[in-house]
């Protein structure tokens, strides 16, 4: 457990980084006065690390504009879904050549209209574990139920002409227990009919990168980031960990 390990490191008087065994120890002052890139072996104490809670280390990164953002929480997604449910599914967009639609009205007080569009391959529905579906008017709980059974779920809403993605603050795709997000700045979302090109492939794999590409989405990647402040008798050094 990294968090526990870091706490232990703070309690020790000295932490030794064991990489580059062939190098002698270099003082931090020398490193801060040197030009990068260089390889060093240091003997230093861990003064602080950020963030304090390990789950806060996970961010979303856009490789195109190099931006970093927080991973939205479930409440944000729920709010966007709630807003999109106010737009009733457009029946003229149901049962096209490349997807089959099922609709119903919920029995609760709100009586929401829900539409699920199952993407077809060779005019046939695929097995659930190979199926991509689009849902209108669903709640977060309902969407998670669908992700347990079907390969990919895309939350959408109706326009006059086509189905479209929700606000990019919401995940544009859910696969298993993973939510995939797009960069608001670099994405240029296309209507859902763009997916029909993948459905027409010989064996649609429904890979997130391919789905993002045809939908004009710049895919954000989950990254792990931490900042460590290391000290010795000569000075302090900030070290950053950044990994996919």
TrEMBL record:
Please report the stretch or stretches of sequence annotated as the Protection of telomeres protein 1 C-terminal insertion domain. 75-218
Tell me the Gene Ontology biological-process terms attached to this UniProt entry. regulation of telomere maintenance via telomerase; telomere capping
What residues form the membrane-spanning segments? none
The entry lists its GO molecular-function terms as: G-rich strand telomeric DNA binding; telomerase inhibitor activity
| Any one annotated GO CC term | nuclear telomere cap complex
- Protein's recorded name: POTE1 protein
**Which organism does this record belong to?**
Melanocharis versteri (Fan-tailed berrypecker)
């Amino acid at each position: 457990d990294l968090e526990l390990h870091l706490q232990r490191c703070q309690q020790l008087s000295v932490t030794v980084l064991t990489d580059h065994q062939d190098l002698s120890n270099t003082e931090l002052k020398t490193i801060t006065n040197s030009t990068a890139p260089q390889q060093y072996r240091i003997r230093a104490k861990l003064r602080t690390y950020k963030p304090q809670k390990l789950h806060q280390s996970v961010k979303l990164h856009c490789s195109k504009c190099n931006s970093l953002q927080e991973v939205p929480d479930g409440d944000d997604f729920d709010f966007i879904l709630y807003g999109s449910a106010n737009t009733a599914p457009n029946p003229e967009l149901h049962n096209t050549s490349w997807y089959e639609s099922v609709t119903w009205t919920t029995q609760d007080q709100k009586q929401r209209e829900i539409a699920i569009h199952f993407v077809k391959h060779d005019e046939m529905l695929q097995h659930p574990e190979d199926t991509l579906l689009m849902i209108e008017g669903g709640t977060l709980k309902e969407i998670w139920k669908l992700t347990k059974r079907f390969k990919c779920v895309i939350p959408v809403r109706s326009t006059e002409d086509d189905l479209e993605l929700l606000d990019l603050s919401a995940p544009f795709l859910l696969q298993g227990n993973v939510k995939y997000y797009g960069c608001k700045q670099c994405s240029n979302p296309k209507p859902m009919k763009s997916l029909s090109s993948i459905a027409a492939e010989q064996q649609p794999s429904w890979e997130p990168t391919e789905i993002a590409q045809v939908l004009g989405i710049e895919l954000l990647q989950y990254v792990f980031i931490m900042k460590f402040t290391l000290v010795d008798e000569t000075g302090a050094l900030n070290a950053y960990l950044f990994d996919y």
